[in-house]
Amino acid sequence: MKKSILKLFSIDLIITQIISAFIFYSGCSCKPCSEQEESQIPLEVLKKADQFIISKTGNDFLKKYITADFSQSKHITPNYLMVYKLYMPEKSFVDELIRFTVDSTGKILTQYEIVGTPDCNVNPMDCDFVVDEKIAKQIANEYGLPKGIKDWKIDFVWDSKYNKYVWEILSTIKENKSEDYYRAEGEKIIIDANNSSVLSKDNWKIN
Predict the structure, then answer these.
(1) Judging by DSSP bridges, how do beta strands 153-159 and 74-76 pair with one another?
(2) Residue 83: exposed, middle, or buried by beta-carbon count in 10 A (0-12, 13-18, 19+)?
(3) With bands split at pLDDT 50, 70 and 90, how would you rate the model's confidence at 40?
(4) Nearest to 58, CA basis, from 117, 108, 145
(5) Residues in CB range of 181: below 8 A, 6 or more apart
(6) 6 pLDDT above the threshold of 90
(7) Phi-psi category of 116—alpha, beta or left, where left has phi over 0 and alpha has psi -120 to 50?
(8) How far is residue 81's CA from residue 77's CA, in Å, rounded to a whole number?
(9) Per-residue model confidence (pLDDT) at position 178
(10) HEC readout, 125-181
């Protein structure tokens, strides 16, 4: 009887150890953990990159809407490409990437393109995004953007020329495509996503 009890105890102990080992090794199998493990970005560099974003958007905005994308950030010797995701749940059209390059100490390299970081601290309205797709379409109609031969192409995008997020709406007037080439032309309008102003309206063409 005593031997049976000891045997059962040993089996229970082995099962417990197996379960504990499984929990330990799978405990960091979630996406954030695996991303951190695979990240090529040193912690000090990440902190400096965060500070750069905070200098533009403020700490509260970063904490609420911006997260580091470790799957796309990478070490490009000797520098680091930093990629973050900007996402606002209450405004689902705001789902963009922030990209910039830093050196090995985390210093921003301004000779490379800085994409997607609105300067909320200087211009607080640049982070309001009060213009949604419906309003953007209404503005495009009011400014006489042609209906074209197919549905408008509408995108919420970062515009490096204006250094802010905009609505870009393209109307296709002509289109000719085959297996070998694609040609099209039309008109486009750029609308400030924060104050409804039309930043530009001109023609576009693909030869």
Answers:
(1) unpaired
(2) buried
(3) confident
(4) 117
(5) none
(6) no
(7) left
(8) 10
(9) 86
(10) HHHCCCCCHHHHHHHHHHCCCCCCCCCCEEEEEEECCCCEEEEEEEEEEEEEECCCC
CA 177 from centre of chain: 32
pLDDT at residue 18 in the model: 44
Q: Is the pLDDT of residue 198 over 60?
A: yes
Please, is 16 exposed, middle or buried when counting C-beta atoms within 10 Å of its C-beta (0-12, 13-18, 19+)? exposed
Q: For 173-199, b where at least 16 C-beta lie within 10 A, e where not — what string?
A: eeeeeeeeeeebebbbbbbbbbeeebe
Domain boundaries, the chain: 31-121, 133-206
CB 183 within 8 A of CB 177: yes
C-alpha–C-alpha distance, residues 101 and 83, integer Å: 9
Residue 13's pLDDT band (cuts 50, 70, 90) = very low
Both tokens of residue 89? 């749940």
Sequence-distant (≥ 6) Cβ neighbours of residue 140 within 8 angstroms: 152, 169, 189, 191
Q: Which strand ranges, in their side-by-side order, compose the sheet holding 153-159?
A: 153-159, 164-177, 182-192, 198-206
pLDDT, position 53: 98
pLDDT score recorded for residue 69: 97
